[in-house]
């Protein structure tokens, strides 16, 4: 658990088991916090991403704020360079959070953005998020597609959670009729072949693909201008 305003600090210096004592101490500490200072996310991110994976478990980072996040370019650059195999989920509460940054950073981190407009919804929406995080059905998803000029969106492909679909859009020429979907179920590798000719023609797919393409080009231009 990391708290931050103009500075950032960890409650614990290393990961702890979710024992009753540790949970109690964490809740007591969180209850003692007061909302003051700014919303400087970079120091908090550095604390969250400063170490390599400590175990075989999938590491999931949840960033929660009700304040406006600035210096987007520096934050995007740091996340892209340091996130590694960790996952990043963002939660914005109220009207102040920078939704553009939080959506884009969660997407880069193979996570999701949860927007909470009313503080009365905090309990229900955060509990739903944490229940989801407990049940990743398929992680490290990839597609093996054979053809010419193949483009796939969005990248990276997010993890699959129980009760929540993942949509992947692709376009290419001279595609083979079969693509292979790969991923991990726990520690075990998994793959499945999918036939492309079993679907139906739908103009909405073209529109969805185009939107993802435009979003990717816009983000690439944004990143280049930051450099």
Short description:
The chain has 227 residues and is an alpha+beta fold.
Can you offer a commentary on this structure?
- By secondary structure, the chain is of the alpha+beta class.
- It is 34% helix and 27% strand.
- It has helices spanning 20-32, 41-48, 72-82, 99-108, 122-133, 203-226, and strands spanning 2-4, 8-10, 60-65, 87-93, 113-116, 136-144, 148-153, 160-161, 169-173, 178-185, 188-195.
- Strand 1 (2-4) and strand 2 form a beta hairpin.
- The two termini are 32 Å apart.
- The mean pLDDT is 87.
What tags apply to this protein structure?
11 strands; globular; three-stranded parallel β-sheet; 6 helices; 227 residues; four-stranded antiparallel β-sheet
Indicate the topology.
Elements: E1 2-4, E2 8-10, H1 20-32, H2 41-48, E3 60-65, H3 72-82, E4 87-93, H4 99-108, E5 113-116, H5 122-133, E6 136-144, E7 148-153, E8 160-161, E9 169-173, E10 178-185, E11 188-195, H6 203-226
Parallel strand pairs: 3-4, 4-5
Antiparallel strand pairs: 1-2, 6-8, 6-10, 7-9, 10-11
Helix pairs in contact: 2-3, 3-4
């Amino acid at each position: 658990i990391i708290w931050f305003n103009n500075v950032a600090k960890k409650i614990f210096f290393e990961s702890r088991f979710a024992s009753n004592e540790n949970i109690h101490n964490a809740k007591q500490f969180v209850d003692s916090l007061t909302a003051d200072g700014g919303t400087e996310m970079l120091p908090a991110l550095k604390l969250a991403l400063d170490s390599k994976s400590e175990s075989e478990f999938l590491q999931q980072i949840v960033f929660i704020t009700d304040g406006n996040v600035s210096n987007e370019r520096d934050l995007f650059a740091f996340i892209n360079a340091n996130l590694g195999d960790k996952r990043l989920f963002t939660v914005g509460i109220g009207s102040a959070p920078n939704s553009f940054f939080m959506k884009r950073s969660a997407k880069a981190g193979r996570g999701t953005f949860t927007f909470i407009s009313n503080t009365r919804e905090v309990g229900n929406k955060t509990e739903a998020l944490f229940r989801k995080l407990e049940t990743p059905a398929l992680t490290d998803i990839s597609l093996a597609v054979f053809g010419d000029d193949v483009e796939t969106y969005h990248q990276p492909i997010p993890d699959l959670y129980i009760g929540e679909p993942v949509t992947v859009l692709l376009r290419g020429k001279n595609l083979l009729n079969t693509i292979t979907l790969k991923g991990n179920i726990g520690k075990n590798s998994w793959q499945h072949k999918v036939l492309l000719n079993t679907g139906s023609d739908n103009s909405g797919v073209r529109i969805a693909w185009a939107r993802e393409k435009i979003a990717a080009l816009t983000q690439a231009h944004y990143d280049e201008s930051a450099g």
